[in-house]
Amino acid sequence: MTGRRRTRSTFLPIITRSALARSTRAGVRAMAAMVACTSLAAGCGVVPGVTGGAGDDTITVMTWAPLETGATNKPGMPALALAYARHVNAQGGIDGRKIKVLICNDHNDSVDAAKCARRAVKEDVVAVVGSYSQYADSFFPVLEGAGIPYIGGYGVTNDEFTSPLSYPVNGGQPALLAGLGKELAAGCGPVVLVRPDTIAGDELPTLINSGLKAGGHENTDDLHAAEDATEYSARSEEALERATADPAERGCVVPALGDRTSTFMDSFRRARLDYPEVRTGTVLGSVDQTVIDASGGRSGPYEGAYITGWYPVETDERWDGMKRVIREQAFADTRIDPADAGVQTTWIAYTVFRAVVEAIDDGEEVTASTVRRTLDDGIEVSTGGLTPTLRWRFQDRLASVGFPRLVNADVTLQVVRDGRLVAAREGFVDVTRTLEGAEVG
Predict the structure, then answer these.
(1) Which CATH class is domain 19-170+317-405?
(2) 115 HSE (CA, 13 A, CB side)
(3) Using the 8-state DSSP alphabet, how is residue 51 labeled?
(4) pLDDT by residue (tens digit) across 98-126?
């Protein structure tokens, strides 16, 4: 194994400083952020948004995501944002206020992520809604300096659960891994976690172990792998050998390699022929129905796999409202897949934003400040059962393990049956207590 790569963290080590300390740091860097916001470098990747009309009553927001890159791409998130704005504006806006959505491409690049944030400041957006970026260290200082709230990010960075201006709608990777570990504890012998050999990857065993421990299981067998490999034959063989070390037990393999999970499973499919009894599990975001279909459906490597997600499965009737908007406003837009977790997160984020705007008095201007104040004053937002009722406090229960802004630790348990991703059990599983037992960092 070559030396460890310090790659951009998907999840940084969980911090132990208080949210108050974080707020103080945000204030210190506010001056630098405001200076940086006075100019906007060319090439931010912004394309025209939509607006239902001009005038003082128009509310400007931004949604950003990586587009047309060689790594992670989330085109459905901005596409859904535009469709949502068309839907709202066609109905006269939110309490008569039309929405203008600006789209920015962060190109999976820290510099462009900062450019998107500076664009948001220059355009005087009232919030960044339903977005995805791995570069929180680049965009949060700018948003914090300008006081712009970040509503419903994908949950891909640790800062989304620590920044006082972040209002997440799901529990990110911590909740998914804890939930998966708890589920696998009941039906697996040895659990082999295949994860990146990076600083960020170091945190994953502790998160899944918190779930395994809650289920009375031993810790995972931690197997490192290169995060940028083009094939994983050797690691697949090793994972299978470790999972079957005890012939009397049925082992499980859990690939947690992000965008490389499918690459691993392609190698794993071939190596698994000699180990048919081994089961698999992973988390939504690494795998969705599109990936399952592309890998062979019921004859593919995901058949029988347990997968944890944040929300109900796409076939659940609670998604009917989102699907109706897609049909009416973006029927021919192939970028929008209603089964995509990014699209679903964007829908929920805009649901939150609409509730916030409706809660602001008619005579009061909708600004970043009034949006943030409404959120901080304890507004409770119902998402129609797609999540528990959402409410953000200065510090929530998981502040003790470094996640003061994590307010929704519910996950859903899904399984691949006959090539389709279906609910493994009804309802949500709350992993708050499981995460409270995690000792990370």
Answers:
(1) alpha beta
(2) 19
(3) E
(4) 999 999 999 989 999 999 999 999 999 99
Q: Which CATH class is domain 173-309+413-436?
A: alpha beta
Query: In one letter, which amino acid is 394?
Result: F
| Nearest CA-CA partner of 405 in 19, 49, 13 | 19
Q: At 101, phi and psi to the nearest 5?
A: -105, 125
pTM score > 0.85 for this model?
no
Q: Is 393 helix (H, G, I), strand (E, B) or coil?
A: coil
> Which positions of the chain have pLDDT values less than 70?
1-56, 200, 438-441
Can you give the residue ranges of every domain in the chain? Answer: 19-170+317-405, 173-309+413-436
50 sits in which H/E element: strand 47-51
For 230-271, give the DSSP string.
Answer: S--HHHHHHHHHHHTSSTTS--EEEE--GGGHHHHHHHHHHH
Asked if residues 420 and 290 have their Cβ atoms less than 8 Å apart, the reply is no
Summarised one tens digit per residue, pLDDT across range 280-311 is 999 887 787 878 888 888 888 888 899 999 99
